[in-house]
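Notes from the 1:1 (GR / supervisor)

We went over the backlog. Supervisor wanted to see one worked example end to end before approving the batch request, so GR pasted a single chain during the call. The sequence is below; no edits were made to it. Supervisor asked that the structure be written out right there so they could see what the output format looks like.
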Amino acid sequence: MFVRIIMGSSSDVEIARKVTSNLSKFEIPYQVSVISAHRALDDLQALVGQDDADVYIGIAGKAAHLPGVIAGMTIKPVIGVPVKSSTLSGLDALLSIVQMPKGVPVATVALDGGENAAILATQILAVQDQDLSQKLAAYKKELSAGVRDMNNEAAVQAL
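Structure output shown during the call:
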């Protein structure tokens, strides 16, 4: 079980931290790299060619071709995280990742959605791992409890 996180630029490090923080909660091994699909394609091909990851997470802004290029190189699941990094407020990145050609899917999360990328990767891995599945179930219960707490606080404040 291993997730490979690839950023298109070191400017995406804050999003990568959101991913790694959540993967660490579930004790999922990962590796983070910075490789531009446009400026270092040979390096990207070499890394993806190792075929050692179970899931890839590509983090990219602007033209945001990185997740799609990764998806074109592997049969493993690829999750794209569009980054809000340009004058178009991330819309360019979102559209670049979500509009993939037929046969080359990339699961796309929200702009700057590193947390959800990690959770989605965890859910993919949990299909074959009962312990991880149980950790996810507990996590979902924590989310529900947090919402109930917010509801109780809001109800008290409204009185």
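Supervisor's comment: The chain has a mean pLDDT of 95.
Batch request approved.
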